[in-house]
Amino acid sequence: MGISKPKTAEDLLAEFPPPIAALTEELRRCLHEAAPTLVERVLPGWRAIGFRDPSAGHICALFPLPAGVKLYFEHGASLEDPDGLLAGDMKQARYIEFRTRKDILRRSLTRLVRVAVTSRL
User: Fold this and answer.
1) Which of 6, 21, 32, 96 has a CA positioned 20 to 30 A from the CA of residue 66?
2) How many domains are there within the chain?
3) pTM of the full predicted structure?
4) What are the residues whose beta carbons fall under 8 Å from the beta carbon of 85, sequence distance 6 or more?
5) CATH number at residue 35
6) Is residue 80 assigned to a domain?
């Protein structure tokens, strides 16, 4: 028998400490509020939750980790980021790292998510 893979976000988050699960849940809410068209699905091999817009395609993914959560934007390198949220030097993707709820800058994050969705349309 193989190892059971998480089928829902709740299954995935059950594998993490409660503060990380709560932080991930808060970020999920922020993403859905910023772009209600986003559809999420668990990416079991990545231990992540992916977010896809029906028209724009894959936008981002949340990666819960033992010490925080990373939010990767698939095409982050080409996104306008006036608030300087994005980090990383990968060719295409960029990320934001969250350790606590205080790290969530809602207005800036909302703006970035909306830019990510509309720039892919």
Assistant:
1) 32
2) 1
3) 0.94
4) 96, 105, 108, 109, 112
5) 3.90.1150.200
6) yes
**Helix, strand, coil shares of the chain as percentages rounded to 5?**
35, 25, 35
Which CA distances in Å does 73 have to 11, 19, 117? 23, 23, 10
Q: Is 108:83 a contact under the CB 8 Å cutoff?
A: yes
Residue 80's domain comprises: 9-119
The total of other beta-carbon atoms located within 10 Å of residue 93's CB is: 16
pLDDT in tens, 83-100: 999 999 999 999 999 999
Q: What is the pLDDT of residues 50-66, one digit of tens each?
A: 999 999 999 999 999 99
Those residues whose C-beta lies under 8 Å from the C-beta of residue 117, and which sit 6 or more positions away, are: 35, 37, 38, 53, 56, 59
> For residue 27, what are its two tokens?
């970020």
